[in-house]
Amino acid sequence: xxxxxxxxxxxxxxxxxxxxxxxxxxxxxxxxxxxxxxxxxxxxxxxxxxxxxxxxxxxxxxxxxxxxxxxxxxxxxxxxxxxxxxxxxxxxxxxxxxxxxxxxxxxxxxxxxxxxxxxxxxxxxxxxxxxxxxxxxxxxxxxxxxxxxxxxxxxxxxxxxxxxxxxxxxxxxxxxxxxxxxxxxxxxxxxxxxxxxxxxxxxxxxxxxxxxxxxxxxxxxxxxxxxxxxxxxxxxxxxxxxxxxxxxxxxxxxxxxxxxxxxxxxxxxxxxxxxxxxxxxxxxxxxxxxxxxxxxxxxxxxxxxxxxxxxxxxxxxxxxxxxxxxxxxxxxxxxxxxxxxxxxxxxxxxxxxxxxxxxxxxxxxxxxxxxxxxxxxxxxxxxxxxxxxxxxxxxxxxxxxxxxxxxxxxxxxxxxxxxxxxxxxxxxx
Length: 429
Prior knowledge:
This protein is mainly alpha-helical. The chain contains 21 helices and 5 strands.
């Protein structure tokens, strides 16, 4: 067990010990930096708990292990926001170096980590939300099947396999944009209902990535589950920021710490898993995957700041009164007009992704960054600021709905949003 988890010997040792002594707790927290293998460990734990042979080896031939390796076991629930582009792109490149079974498997799992976020179980009572993603899910699943390990003997040429995989990336970007930035309360409640039903096999496992990114309602709903966990279910929380979890949740989980990948582990993963070219295999794993993102991780946060600070600056120049927390924004504005801010962002992102499918995730990510920035101002808010922030939050939600439901162009939507934010300032000022 855990043969596929490279460079985390201490975490593996503790997990194995707890499993062998039947001391694994009902609720676990896998904490550590990005690309440390936390999700790999969570998925492997779910497989080990379901293994029917008792060996739990990675290549165990039992039906439960076979289904877990393909991320298709009904006793696995996978949810929570995350970025998928870099892993899918890197896995597609690995296929391009030769679509052997390992490369096919890597690509298939990379896609399934995304599509499993849209398990119908998670959308019980919210089917209209799922319907928006149905066509994309179906197309991605078809691509994954065509390039996956079960199609190894299909007679496709290597070129055909790589060509099929290349179609996945823009679809994955669009599908990822439909995943909420914070885990919604309806999905936490759906996970609870699912967890309380009898398992298909031995044990149910719900994996929640970025569990620190929850609003109060979802946190309280999760806490209710962790206080009285079902005997046949496990919950594995995954987080890069465990300190952001509320103390009452932390007190109900056992934490397993994952360390950053060292240079040796990175080289092993890049050479064995991704079969990277020699000149790239000497990079860190973080650098290798970051290079597969068209924009730096912090880019949309920077765009959100430029945009919102320009709105505040322009409003202050027009004589609108700004509460102190928002006055600070206007004073730090790198762009002295909304139009300049929009033009610079559009130039860097090909019109917020409207002109390039590979950047289609930018506008939803920009809206999520904007929402986080707005929420951060609530800590210093007075009644007047609260009124502005409420108006801004409503305007951002409206832009998101118009983009997702009506497929409107992101450029005009950003302009409309800027005017809505300014209107909120004028009404209060």
